[in-house]
Amino acid sequence: MPKHSSSLLELARRGAQHRYEELQAELAALVRQFPDLRHGAREVVRRGRRAVTAATEELRPRKRRRFSAATRARMAAAQRARWAKRKAASGGESEAGGRKAGKKR
């Protein structure tokens, strides 16, 4: 990775400082326009990264439950039993007139 010159790093620091001051001024303007947000604005500034993390955790999708292999096997066996029962009740023929589904002539 190339090393940056000290003048380039100084310019980057000045730019970052300027942007930080712009954001502080914008935040102050918003608090002046909406005084009821004063407490919340200070809270976000004071807490920093933790406040952002807490806010994003609410938006994350829930984790899906995973079935064990034994449970999946029981579910599959129960579904096969339901299919067999329905096939036996219909007389062993499918709805397509005795042909297997998916085959074309």
Provide structural commentary.
The protein is an all-alpha fold and 105 residues long. The protein has helices at 6-33, 38-47, 49-57, 69-89. The radius of gyration is 32 Å and the shape is elongated. The relative contact order is 0.04. The mean pLDDT is 79.
Low-pLDDT stretches are: none
Task: Please tell me the overall pLDDT.
Answer: 79
Strand content: under 5%
Number of strands: 0
Please identify the structural class as seen in this structure.
Answer: mainly alpha
What's the helix-strand series? HHHH
Largest sheet: none
Topology:
Blueprint: H1 6-33, H2 38-47, H3 49-57, H4 69-89
The gist of it:
The protein is built from four helices and no strands.
Give structural attributes.
single chain, about 0% strand, about 65% helix, elongated
